[in-house]
Amino acid sequence: MIMKKLITIIFTAAALTVGGTVSAEQVSVEQFNSAIVEANELRKKSGELDHEWRDTAKLLKSAQAAASEGDLDKAMKLVAEAKFQSEAAINQAEREARLWEGRVVR
Amino acid sequence: MKRWLPSLLIAMAVAGASMMTLAAPEDDRVAFENYFLTKFPDTPKSDFVNGIYSIDPISRDQWLDLEEFPPYELALESGETLFETPFANGKTYGDCFDNGGIGVRQNYPYFDTERGEVVTLELAINECRTANDEKPLKWKSGPIAAISAYMAFTSRGQTINVVIPDDSRALAAYEEGKKFYYTKRGQLNFSCSDCHIGGSGGYIRTEKLSPSIGHVSHFPVYRLKWGAIGTLHRRFSGCNQQVRAKAFKAQGREYRNLEYFLSYMSNGLEFNGPGVRR
Q1: Does residue A105 sit in helix, strand or coil?
Q2: Helix residue ranges, H only, A2-105
Q3: Which member of A47, A54, A103 has the closest CB to residue B187?
Q4: All residues at 6 or more sequence positions from B13 whose CB lies less than 8 Å from its CB, including other chains
Q5: Domain boundaries, chain B
């Protein structure tokens, strides 16, 4: 009984892994285009808040280059990193708006 | 008596609040200065104009050796030549500045109440050019740094005395510079103050961090790392990039206001630029 359950879990996990891999391989150009537009909007927002990070634009540029070479997996990973950076930068801006005054020497 | 008493009290409260607001920058400066005087009790106040060399005896010795034949001398010579060379219309930089541009470094940065913004020396240099139909120079290094270095050299010994005029926009510029200075930014999540207040005297990798007080006094500087002379805004830009933040434009509002705040923090110290740094 326990063995049956274990086998079921193993097969289910394997199926999910394969499914995930397949879906990652099936990133479409449309999905990439949509993702990079979203990531670039976030980058712009972090810039409007005076908190854009140094390498975010470079990551997006590299993502675009990877996509142009047909490596959409790499491109999506770079977009995800850029998106993460921009979200973190926006969080930083919001956090710092509250915290900076606490550092003023008094 | 009773009728006008509330109005009088309100007027007094408003005046008091206004005075408190205007007093804030000076409170900031005194606290800033006292922090460093307490942290580095062996450093005389006047010596903070020497930056890291004011708190690090070993690098001070190396610096004093360098100053015997300072690497900024060539820039000083070219700066003087550029400064004195007439524009195409026959006028010179000297025509744009008080006292012919000699010994005027201490007049910058200032808040221009007509324009409603901070004016730095480098901004004034380029505005002198455009007013005389010359192309503006690049902001961070090269000729503008050389001209600025020459003008700073003629102003050695003059006292930093940044004034915040009674203008809400001037106070806002000061506050924006102050906010910038204390705000963490970039992927490494560092503020200027993290390194140059709390971290001053400590190390990042092999480099000892300098105290902020007196930071503006010796710019432009010849940095051995650059192999050339560069402006204060070039250094701001480099610091921002080192913490992996996107740098702001040299002579943009952000860095001019930062310079305004930082210069105010060093009021009372002497200009001793140009300097030499690693």
Answers
A1: coil
A2: 2-25, 29-48, 56-68, 72-99
A3: A54
A4: none
A5: 30-70+164-277, 73-153
Interface confidence: ipTM more than 0.85: yes
Question: 3-state class of A10 per DSSP?
Answer: helix
B96 as an active site residue: the answer is no
pLDDT interval class at B22 (50, 70, 90): very low
Alpha-carbon distance of B245 to A33, in angstroms, equals 26
The residue of chain B nearest to residue A84, with distances taken between CA atoms, is B187
- Between chains, do A57 and B186 touch, taking CB under 8 Å as contact? no
B244 at A interface, C-beta within 8 A = yes
How far apart CA A23 and CA A52 sit, in angstroms, is 31
User: Tens digits of per-residue pLDDT, B78-116?
Assistant: 999 999 999 999 999 999 999 999 999 999 999 999 999
DSSP assigned state of A100: G
- By Cβ distance, the residue of B27, B246, B248 closest to A53 is B246
Report the topology of domain B73-153.
Cytochrome Bc1 Complex; Chain D, domain 2 (1.10.760)
